[in-house]
């Protein structure tokens, strides 16, 4: 059977994942684009926007730990060579750990870390020299961030996992890029906020556009960079966080958010 080149994007129903899916054919050569998220109507709409691309919409709840394994038979049936994997599905909460229901926290860990890792495990056996992985972490990955504490911790995992994998896969000619966006205008904020007035993160000192962050992501992915950040503020913050003690960084952050203590 002839090998089919497959590009896969999770979190493709909105935000940065949607931009990665929409622009994938400009940057990477493939036969089919597989787009994954829960909202199948959104995926279908995105597919209809790209008539020249063969798109397969796969509706999965990636917080369900077994969900990723359903891709194995699809990859086998397709005789797949995975040339691109973008892990963009993820969410956070702008609340104190004590205010985030444990079920939500479990889902965050399952999606941001578990599903991302499962996607890598699932796709790597189908990847060859020249394949690319891009995992969306965050600038929050570089420091502890009170009141999005768990989210920042999940992103620290994504950053560390991606960088380790970058090194391990270099001899095989497969690159892994951790995209670390600053605040970016997407539905992330609708999901992170809550209606009960318990949001503690309310001040956003800069807001980037998803298409710009994604464009930088593509550039750095094609250069085989291990880490990609976009924007002066993002870069300055990453540098400062390396130089200053984390306690001071957390104090500054809480001050910006007008949270005492
Ligand atoms: N926006 C920011 O300021 C920012 C900054 C740094 C990092 N990030 C990270 O960037 C990535 C993309 O987020 P975004 O900003 O583009 O937010 P977004 O617009 O809310 O997109 C999140 C995507 O994840 C998918 N998703 C959520 N839960 C899912 C589940 N259980 N199963 C499958 N898919 C699921 C959503 O699709 P469905 O709801 O249809 O399932 C959606 O497509 C995330 O990892 C986020 O943590 C965002």
Structure characterization notes:
Helix 1 (15-27) packs across helix 7 (210-222) and helix 4 packs parallel to helix 5 (149-169). The chain has helices at residues 15-27, 40-48, 71-78, 102-123, 149-169, 188-192, 210-222, 232-243, 246-256; strands spanning 4-10, 32-37, 55-59, 80-87, 132-136, 175-179, 227-228. It is α/β, with parallel strands linked by helices and 261 residues long. The chain has a single domain (4-256), classed as Rossmann fold. Helix 2 links the parallel strand 2 and strand 3 (55-59). The protein is 44% helix and 15% strand. A seven-stranded parallel β-sheet has the order 3-2-1-4-5-6-7, with helices on both faces. The structure holds NADP nicotinamide-adenine-dinucleotide phosphate. The site of NADP nicotinamide-adenine-dinucleotide phosphate has 30 residues, from helix 1 and helix 6.
